[in-house]
Prior knowledge:
Layout: H1 2-24, H2 29-54, H3 58-77, H4 79-100, E1 108-110, E2 113-115, E3 117-121, E4 124-130, E5 137-140, E6 153-158, E7 164-168
Antiparallel strand pairs: 1-2, 3-4, 4-5, 5-7, 6-7
Helix pairs in contact: 1-2, 1-3, 1-4, 2-3
Amino acid sequence: MKAGRISAIIVASLAVAADVSLSATGFETMATRVASWLAVLIIAGFTCVWLAFKGKGRRGVLFFALAAGLSASVGLTDWPLRLAFLASKSQLDRLADRLEQGNAVAPTWVGTFCIRKAELREDMPCLWISLEPSGFTGLARPVDGIALGKYNDWSDARLSSKWHLIKED
């Protein structure tokens, strides 16, 4: 049964890692929330398996409780996205400034964000990280600080007073 317990820990750890990495790379916020709650359900299931085979193992239950709490916190606050954004903000500002000055910006990596396309839309720098046919996802810096409603937005997560993560519909 030791292999079963180790497998449970590995799967729970992978669920948390996937959840954190989805958020940190700017994956669409609604999908990140769904993934977070799925991870919590998976971890809860493995907690039940752990208890069935281990009994009253406090360390295992504590691990699973922390893992579930971590996944839930990602779904509630998107803290990995916000940390990744804060770490990359100065580079993103420089890239947006280059766009506003009329310079072309080639696809590039900025921190954890893979900028696939950069453009000005209505004088607003948009750094697109996903070019899905159903709608682009990216970081936008509107002049007035308001991004919602300027596009056919599916979601808009305010990252700072100027920056937003937007998902077009």
